[in-house]
Design brief:
Layout: E1 5-6, E2 12-16, H1 22-29, H2 32-35, H3 48-59, E3 65-71, E4 74-83, E5 91-98, H4 107-122, E6 127-133, H5 137-145, E7 149-160, E8 163-173
Parallel strand pairs: 5-6
Antiparallel strand pairs: 1-2, 2-3, 3-4, 4-5, 6-8, 7-8
Protein name: GNAT family N-acetyltransferase
Domain N-acetyltransferase: 24-176
InterPro entries: Acyl_CoA_acyltransferase, GNAT_dom
C-alpha cells in the first residue's frame, strides 16, 4: 500500500507516523474525551513514553496498517487496521481517532473513507470491522459515510470509564463468502 494517501478533504492526507510527530501526538492524544472513545490499549494520561512506544509500533506494523491523519502537514490523529491472523486473516479491525479541536470538520470521515476505499480497491482484506461504544453516534456516522454497515449491537460487551456499555459492530465487506483460491 502506498505510504501517502490523499483524502477528498483539501490539506488532509494519511501518511506514516514519524518521530517529528511526537509533540503533536502527545498534544492531540492526551485528552480524556479522546481516551473515552478508545480501546484499553490507548492510555490516559498520554505521556511522552506512550508516544515513544506508539511511534515504535507504528514504524513496524507488520501486516497491519498504522497511519497518521495529517492536516496541513501536522498530525491531528491516527487511523489504521489491525490485521487478523489464523482463520481470521481476511478480517482486519478498523479504527481511528482525532484530536478534539479537529472534531466536526469532516476530517475523520475523509480519512476513514480514504483508507477503507484503498483497502477495498487493493483487496488487502476481505472484511473490515469496527466496534463503537453506544455513546458515540458521531463515530457511527463516520463509519456509515465510509461505507460500513451496522451489523449488531453487542449488549454489555465492554467496560469503559467505570461503565458497562453496549458496543455497535460495523463492517465493510469487500469479498463475499465462498471458496478461496484455486
Amino acid at each position: 500500500m502506498s505510504v501517502h494517501l490523499p483524502t477528498d478533504l483539501p490539506g488532509c492526507v494519511l501518511r506514516p507516523w514519524r518521530a517529528a510527530d511526537k509533540e503533536d501526538l502527545i498534544r492531540e492524544a492526551n485528552n480524556r474525551k479522546v481516551w473515552r472513545n478508545m480501546t484499553h490499549t490507548f492510555p490516559h494520561p498520554y505521556t511522552e513514553r506512550d508516544a515513544d512506544h506508539w511511534l515504535e509500533i507504528a514504524a513496524n506494523p507488520g501486516a497491519s496498517i498504522q497511519l497518521a491523519i495529517a492536516m496541513d502537514g501536522r498530525a491531528v490523529g491516527g487511523i489504521g487496521v489491525i490485521a487478523g491472523d489464523g482463520i481470521f486473516a481476511a478480517t482486519a479491525q478498523f479504527g481511528y481517532w482525532l484530536g478534539e479541536p479537529h472534531w466536526g470538520r469532516g476530517i475523520a470521515s475523509a480519512a476513514a473513507a480514504a483508507l477503507a476505499g484503498r483497502i477495498g480497491r487493493e483487496r488487502l482484506f476481505a472484511r473490515l470491522e469496527a466496534q463503537v461504544f453506544d455513546w458515540n453516534p458521531a463515530s457511527m456516522r463516520v463509519l456509515e459515510k465510509a461505507g460500513f454497515a451496522r451489523e449488531a449491537v453487542l449488549r454489555s460487551a465492554a467496560t469503559k470509564d467505570g461503565c458497562l456499555i453496549d458496543t455497535v459492530l460495523y463492517a465493510r465487506v469487500f469479498a463475499e463468502a465462498g471458496p478461496v483460491g484455486d
